[in-house]
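Q: Structure for this?
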Amino acid sequence: MTYLRTVLHHLAKDLRLESRSRDALNGMLFFSLLVVVLFSISFDPTRAVSREITGGILWTAILFSTTTALNQSWTRELRHHSLDAQRLAPAPASALLLGKALANFLLVTILEVVLALIFIVFYNVNVLGNAWLLLLVLPLGTWSLVMNGTFFAALSLRTRSRELMLPLLLFPVSIPALLAMVQATQSILTADSDPTLWIKLLAGYCIVFTLVCLMLFSTVLAAE
Amino acid sequence: MTPAAKLTGVSKLYGSFAALRNVTLELPAGRCFMVLGPNGAGKSTLLRTLAGLIRPTLGQIEVLGTTPDDACSRIGYMSHATMLYDELSALENLRYYERLYFPALPVAASRAAAALTSVGLDPALTRPVGDYSQGMRQRASMARALLSDPELLLLDEPFSNLDTSGTAQMIALLDEIHRAPRAADAPARTIVLTTHQPQLAESIVHTVITLRSGAVESVEERAR
């Protein structure tokens, strides 16, 4: 109960900081809009083609734009050495990671709502499969990206070129999750195949990486 | 009585550079120590090592009878950075940190407002810390360090951004903090501060430790 309270406390702080600065959300929205619009202009897809490529474009846009928010969320902690104050506090380190990942999850979810509307307009997408399954794929996919991303952003905090380091660490690790997200989304949009296996893979990936990140985070935080 | 800190042969190496060299010190509890030395002498490294933010490369360190990690909730640390979030007000910052120390503390029992008042800041101030003057930030940072009623207070350059009256207030505050009785069964408070302006803190210190090139050059007792 105390742990959960601490997680919510970190979450509330991060959301409050973001609501006052809007640094992460503005950056993510602008970047993802650029990606989606540029793809739309470059390919001018028909409705059938849209269903085939939407999953890939959607998740690529989310992955790229998420990295901007993830770096931002830790940069705040470094600005006036707030991270040192976090390290000195007796609160569990993993609660900080979980609170931050949840805040990033909510921000990326807002991004996805905006992107969904844009896809309907620019790509003329309609769903042929079970649309409700997207309510599983989107949160699972988002969580896999933000959990790993928040962890790896913390890992690259003390490197000289951390902006470059995050994608270098995050993208290869995210390949299995990205594959599952894209395939599941495409299966749902086209109704060509059953997305269940991909959703299970995604859920398994989320569980494994969430546990690993939470277990290793105190070591990452204590690193000099 | 258990000493506030005991360092035995502590060295901290960064590659071939030794920030601390074979430091052996015992800091009895309930006293006020001033650490002097030119830039690069190892003053900040010594304080960060006592706080548990830096692990010594060699040697043993004991803080409040245990390891710095285990003693973290009993240590207050103020660095030359504020360790506060620019987007939040001083009260919001302090409430956030307070909850990391006391997750179940009811709002009514919060000591954040009292801590701000004690350093001469108005808790009702809604301006974000980013809009404060340097002196106000310094005082807010001091209030953060005092939140957990620490047994060991580590202050890195507490007078660096203060004007003459602010410095006088800070010295009076430190004197009061040091003299103020803690809870009946609580041990006396120990203060360790670093400064480049020794004349300012002369009136409140018991012992002056001088560092040079990472090594202890002298330890002098002062009559108070």
